[in-house]
C-alpha cells in the first residue's frame, strides 16, 4: 500500500460516534491490545458540528462533544449530511492519503458511506481507493437515494465488523456487513460500545491486521480452528438471509 511503499506507516482515519469526540474514540480504542494498531498512524478528528443536545458520555469523559450530522428517529432523513461529506472529503484530501477507515456508530456508518461512494466514483476520485475498514456498531443509511449508490454493489474494501449481542444496532450492523465483500464479523456479548476483546477476538483481529499489512488480496478469511469456522458459517447464513430479504 502506498504508505508502506514510501517507508511510512499506513494511515487510518478514525471517526467517532454521535455527540462524543475524537479524543473519546481514541480512549475507547485504547482498551484494545496496543500492538494491534502499532504499525499505523491513526487520525482522530472531531465532528464538524458541536453536539446539539445532551451527550451520553457527560460525566464520563470531558467535553467538548461533536456530531457529524443530524437525523430523525427513523434514520431516514438527515440534516447537514452533504455538508459533512464535503468537509470530510476536504479533510481527507488535505491530511491523507488514508489507507483505511475505522469508525464507531455514526462514525462507522459515515465511513462505510464514503467507501461506497468512492467505489462508485461519486467522490474522492483523486484519492487512492480506501483499502480497509474497521466497523464498530455501524449501520446503513436508509434513504433509498443513498442506498442505490453507496451499496449498489458489494464493497470490495477489506472489512471487519464488531457486532454486540446486546447492541440495539445488532441487526443493522449485520445488514451493513452484508454490503461488503467477504466481511469478517467478530461478535461480542456487550452492547452499543467499543468492546473489550477477549483472546479469541484479539487473535481474529490480529490476523486480519496482519493480512492488511501483508497486502493480501481481499478474500474469505480462513480460520484455524473449528470454533472460528463454525462462527463464520453462522455469519454467512445470517448475511444470506439478509440478502434474500433485501431482494424480496
Question: Features of this protein?
Answer:
alpha/beta; disordered N terminus; single chain; disordered C terminus; 248 residues; six-stranded parallel sheet; 16% strand; 38% helix; two-stranded antiparallel sheet
Summarize the biggest pleated sheet: 6 strands, parallel
- Label the overall shape: globular
| Distance between the ends | 39 Å
Q: What letter string, H or E per element, gives the SSE order? A: HEHEEEEEHEHEHEHEHH
Q: DSSP helix count?
A: 8
Mean pLDDT: 87
Strand content is 15-25%
Secondary-structure class: alpha/beta
Low-confidence stretches: 1-5, 216-234, 236-248
What gyration radius follows from the Cα positions, in whole Å?
17 Å
Number of extended strands:
10
Oligomeric state of the chains present here: single chain
**What is the helix fraction of residues, given as a range?**
25-40%
What's the arrangement of strands in the largest beta sheet?
2-1-7-8-9-10
Can you give a write-up of this model?
Strands 2-1-7-8-9-10 form a six-stranded parallel β-sheet, sandwiched between helices. Strands 3-4 form a two-stranded antiparallel sheet. The chain has about 250 residues and is of the alpha/beta class. The model is unreliable at about 1-5, about 215-235 and about 235-248 (pLDDT under 50). The chain is built from eight helices and ten strands.
In short:
The chain contains eight helices and ten strands. It has 248 residues and is α/β, with parallel strands linked by helices.
